[in-house]
Design goal:
It is built from three helices and no strands. By secondary structure, the protein is mostly helical. The two termini are about 15 Å apart.
Length: about 80
């Protein structure tokens, strides 16, 4: 598992166990990530939080590595 996957797992776990964080993550993802995990994303990076339901699923296609907005390729 790479660093990004580990962080995503921690974010998901936190959201599933903390309703206040989950709401903050849905309303202002960048601020919630900064507040809870000290993740400071560049201004031009957009974050969208989607919640699956029992009958609605999402498939996320990753960006090509050369299109990654950060030098470490994490986000």
């Amino acid at each position: 598992m790479n660093e990004r996957q580990e962080i995503q797992n921690k974010i998901i776990e936190k959201a599933m166990t903390d309703d206040v964080f989950k709401k903050a993550l849905q309303e202002n993802p960048k601020q919630a990530l900064k507040d809870e995990f000290d993740i400071d994303l560049p201004e031009d990076v957009k974050i969208e939080v989607l919640e699956e339901t029992s009958n609605k699923y999402y498939i996320t296609l990753p960006a090509c590595p050369e299109e990654s907005p950060t030098s470490d390729g994490m986000w």
